[in-house]
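Could you help me review a protein record that somebody else here produced? What it holds is a sequence and that sequence's fold in token form. I have pasted the whole thing underneath without changing anything:
=====
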Amino acid sequence: MERVGVLFVCLGNICRSPMAEGLFQDRVQRDGVAGRFVVESAGTAAYHVGELADPRTREVLQRRGIDLRSRARRVADDDFERFDWILAMDGSNLSNLRRRCPAQHDHKLHRVLDPLGGGDVDDPYYGGSSGFDRNCDQLLEAFDHWLPRMLGP
């Protein structure tokens, strides 16, 4: 069985996209379908390459029993080929991805909140911890819609 590749993308890959990565991995594990997925996250900018996720992201995940160990990386050219679903946290990062994405892979690009009517997962970096909790709630709600779609019929 071919595995479904899912890449979550934000700007620096230390707040929203690693949170999405951890939450989605936990979700597919709990649903018993983890073996069907390859899940990663990346940033459109290289500000934090090699760093662990923001401590506030890790704290939100730890409260849910998720130990996130991934390190920030920048979106690579071959990601457009490797992943089936590339989910941007906001319109700005989606635009950055569209500029880089080969035309034959453009159908893979979406905003993570598209199933909820669109909108952005706001960057919580310069705010308090409540923004991280809000991001978590938004992502979990979106995954309720994405997961069945990704698994197909």
